[in-house]
Structure prediction request, 238 residues.
Amino acid sequence: MNKILVLKAFDKAAMEIKKRGIQKPSRTEIALELSIFIADREDFDLGERSLRDYRAAAEKWKEENKDISIKQLAVINGLCRYLGFENYQGFVESIGLPGDQIKEVAKETKGWLPNKLLLLISMSLIVLIGLWTYHYTQRQKWMLWQENQYIEVDFDANKYRIKQLLLYNENRISSFHKVEVSCDTLFFNTDGSVRFWYGKNKNKKVEYFTGSGVHPETGKTLKSISQYMIDKYVCGKK
Prediction:
């Protein structure tokens, strides 16, 4: 079931990206979309590379009676929620017939409809998808990264580059910021958990953020702060 979960999640992520105007999103872009969602909803960091590896494994065993292993429960839950299910059980129940039975039914029913009717249905679907996409981009809330935070913006392909626009996430806007830190900054909570994450920008400069996830400009997974990083990069100790 895990391989089906991964493949369906990648398919949906690809569709979401296409709605933003990117007609041929790369697997890296698709995996990054899922990585950000999992980080936001499950508070779990999983790099896009790991998701691409899961995707490759799922594709490899797609036609075989063998499943892939996903060790992180947060990843499974995150992918299920991305697909609109409350939990893994809900996803499993939604699958219905096994893949081989679905193929058999499709084979048996092939050719039932006349070609002209099929063509008419296809053209109607294309028109409906176009209208729905236009309506979706107008009513959907969007955000983009500006200097040190995400801000809400309208969908405007003329004003912004398509790759800049992300689906609106209230938690990301209110809680994720780039900040300046010093030796006097409180880096850890009383229970020892970290309060900041870091990553290098395009100029290889270390930057600090108030939430986990990926760097808004490079797309690389942020790392949680450590005493070593504080001593070396913040306080300048050798």
About this structure: The CA atoms of residues 3 and 166 lie 27 Å apart. Residues 97-113 have pLDDT under 50 and may be disordered. Strands lie at 142-146, 149-153, 166-167, 178-179, 197-200, 206-209, 223-224. The longest strand covers residues 142-146.
